[in-house]
Amino acid sequence: KLQFLYFIGMTHIEACLSCSTENEAGYIWDVKNGLPLHTFNQMRCGGKSLTYAEKQHVVISGHAEKSVATMHYATKEQPRHRCNLPEKMSTLAMSKTGLHLAGGGISGKLYLWAISTGALLRIWDGHYKTVSKVAFSADGSYLLSASEDASIKAWDLAYILDVTQPSVSDLRASNTNTLHTLGVTDIHLPSTHGWVVSVAKDRTLRIHDHLTNSDIYCCVLPSLPKCVTTTPLSALVFAGCADGKIYQADLYPERARETSAKGQNVPQAKLLNALLGHDSENGAPSKDAIMGKYQTAAFEGHVGGVTALAISTDGLSLISGGVDGNVNIWQVSSRLLLKSFNLHKSSISSVQLVMVPVKMPSEKESQLTQPFSYLKKNASTGEAEDDYTTLVYHGPTDDKQQDKGDRKGRKRKRGKQDASQTQSQAEKSLTPIPTPTPSPTPTPPPSTQQGNRPSYSSQNNSVDIIARLYNIVSVQQQRIRELEKGS
Fold first, then answer.
1. In what order do the strands lie in the sheet with 298-300?
2. Which end of the chain has fewer CB atoms < 10 Å from its terminal CB, N or C?
3. Quick one: which of 148, 228, 162 has its CA closest to 195?
4. DSSP-based three-state secondary structure for 319
5. 61 in Cβ contact with 69 (< 8 Å)
6. Cα–Cα dist 355/116, whole Å
7. Binning pLDDT at 50, 70 and 90, where does residue 385 land?
8. Is the pLDDT of residue 391 over 60?
9. Choice among 138-142, 161-165, 349-353 with the minimum mean pLDDT
10. pLDDT in tens, 311-331
11. Which of the listed ranges 21-25, 258-262, 290-294, 366-370 does the model predict with the highest average pLDDT?
């Protein structure tokens, strides 16, 4: 099937990436038929700490209980790198460009890595409680972070990556949203520029524009929300709640539907206000939108709470993961359950829609075009240390290079040992040679007998030893010639 799709010109297929909290296995499976495409071992993901780098074809997941992150290549079951992190990550997110990885810790700190080198670029205090979600904007210019301290902050990446900043204490959020009264459980950034869809423990669903600092939409949900997502055009909002239901909030009022059905050419501003439930005169949210009048539909099928949501690229299918360990595929228009993926044996922690190439390149080819490296633990140095990472899997090229380096190291070590042994033996051999009774003829100085040979004043021990041996042999030969003449 994959070869046929590649033959007709389809280079990518839509797939779902899912993992659980207890079962150490993750899957990439086809949304159309529910069959697994790739399997990953040693992936015990916690919270929302699962992300996929589409350019590098790398899956990065944070451990549920340890301060460890694993990096899997898409075609390998075993992890490529197992990285030690500064703390346990509650959330991870990949930028749209595939250049940066953002993470949020349980202490409230935010982290930013470079994927190509693995260098930890920035560490700063973003919140004073656990970070529940980090996400990049559609254009990659902002980093949004939500926390259990009931705040949502927007960070300008150009300001964060500015090397002229003297210290991390000078990092300030470009916008801070404190409309929620309790901890924020999830945020979603749709394609609409500046929008932030959020749900919190106060059972409210809000849409906020962090660029204009304006509140667009708000409604109260009947249960505690755990996750949220929207359709590609931000027309429908879905919130997964603890009662096992997925509630749908429709942002299209009746007048917007009537206007679109009649085909009238209304101004863009009025149409936008109609779509958002705003009053056409002042642009403020209407009373029906604030009270959640259009929040009527619900998806029922999970046993327990809904923990993760994702929407297909065409907006026709909704994918949900629950505490029961099932990943369900729903039809948005009829709210019918189409398929169920039940390979996980524990609660689903994260579900993401990814585009997987039909013909996956090899790891060596991917490293040449889009390199990736293990994540550093410390931002003060760019070099790898022993406690930074444990390399789990080595490719054939890496094994040969490692063996070659080990052989060179062993040869170098043996050479040093042999040189030291030769030096010690030469020093022992330089004992005074017994000479016969001194002859009446005085011995001329060595400089005269040697013909003014150059002095060996080099610091090299081997050269000094040879020079001393040469002098001793010359003196003994001179004495023997003198004795033969005297006899």
1. 225-230, 236-241, 245-250, 298-300
2. C
3. 228
4. strand
5. yes
6. 21
7. very low
8. no
9. 161-165
10. 998 889 999 999 988 999 999
11. 21-25
- Contacts of 431-434 with C-beta under 8 Å, sequence gap 24+, read 433/472, 433/476
| Cβ contacts of 370 within 8 Å, gap of 6 or more | 53, 55, 56, 98, 116
Alpha carbon of residue 438 to chain centroid? 84
pLDDT band at residue 414, thresholds of 50, 70 and 90?
A: low
Residue 458 belongs to what H/E stretch?
none
Measure the CA–CA gap between 56 and 81, rounded to whole angstroms.
14
Distances (CA, A) of 114 to 104, 186, 474: 15, 25, 68
pLDDT of 134 reads 95
Contact 150, 158 (CB under 8 A): no
CB contact set of 100 (below 8 Å; sequence gap of 6+) = 94, 112, 113, 114, 115, 121, 136, 157
- Between CA 469 and CA 476, with CA 472 as vertex, the angle to 5 degrees is 140
How far apart are the C-alpha atoms of 133 and 121, rounded to whole Å? Answer: 19
Q: Report the Cα–Cα distance between both ends of the chain, in Å, rounded.
A: 106
Output the CA angle 423-429-432, nearest 5 degrees.
Answer: 135
Tokens for 184, please give them: 């924020």
